[in-house]
Amino acid sequence: MLEFKHKDVWTTHGKGFCVEVVRWERELSISEESWSISDTNIWNIYAYIYPSHTLFNKLKRVKRAGDCYKFGIPFTRDISYFNKNQRENKICSIQIGNDYNHLGDEYFTRCSTKDEASSIFFDAEELFKYLEKLMM
Question: What's the whole-number mean pLDDT along residues 79-106?
Answer without folding.
Answer: 91
